[in-house]
Amino acid sequence: MVFFLPSFVYADDEKIEVTFSKCVDGDTAKFKINDEIKSVRFLAIDTPETVHPTKKEEKFGKEASNYTCDKLKNAKKIVIEYDENSTKTDKYDRVLAWVFVDDILLQEKLIENGYAKLAYLYGDYKYVDKLKIKEETAKNNRIGIWQETDDKSNSKVEDSNGDYNKIKKIIGNQDEIYKKLVKIAKKVLKKLENML
């Protein structure tokens, strides 16, 4: 007996060719996927805001949007790829995917040109190591969003617990932590000496 799988069933790591529909901003666009128009949020990056309902337009937001829109409008072929370590949609029901424009990873080009930073990393995503190298180069060369930064650790990479601010606070106060630990260690040693 032979079984045929419907054509819309894809493995998590399979690439799907899509048709461009509409620009949204630097890290989101609409594509026709399986005869349905869907919003696609580009996985693992964040570009400055241009159309956020509660935030005003951010510096380099327009440039990021224009770059993305230009690449997508002029593409001969657009392919999205789901990551097996990510959910397929976010809380806004947008598709989460890697986006390839004429076989080039769009997230990589956005980071390389200083229009995006790594963000929303909730798993061990497929292309993140490559993107980290591109982001470090953009930071070191002060490209795009990194032009006015003095602190190389300024990139907010959000984790699944939302502990970024706590981590930064701890890292920023290493001397204070060290002093407190030394005081605690001295007290413990003194108590041990008294007990012996």
Q: Can you summarize the main beta sheet?
A: 5 strands, mixed, barrel
Low-confidence stretches: 1-12, 151-171
Number of domains: 2
Order of helices and strands, N to C? EEEEHEEEHEHHH
What is the total tally of β strands? 8
The overall pLDDT average reads: 82
Number of helices: 5
**What is the approximate shape?**
elongated
Architecture overview:
This protein is of the alpha+beta class. The protein folds into 2 domains: 15-161, OB fold (Dihydrolipoamide Acetyltransferase, E2P); 163-196. It has 5 helices and 8 strands; from the N terminus they run ββββαβββαβααα. The strands form 2 sheets. A 5-stranded mixed beta barrel has the order 1-2-3-6-5. Strands 4-8 form a two-stranded antiparallel sheet. α2 packs parallel to α3. The chain is elongated and about 80 Å long.
Can you summarize this structure?
By secondary structure, this protein is α+β, with helices and mostly antiparallel strands. It has helices at 61-73, 106-112, 128-140, 164-172, 174-195; strands at 15-25, 28-33, 36-42, 45-46, 78-81, 95-101, 104-105, 117-118. The chain has 2 domains: 15-161, OB fold (Dihydrolipoamide Acetyltransferase, E2P); 163-196.
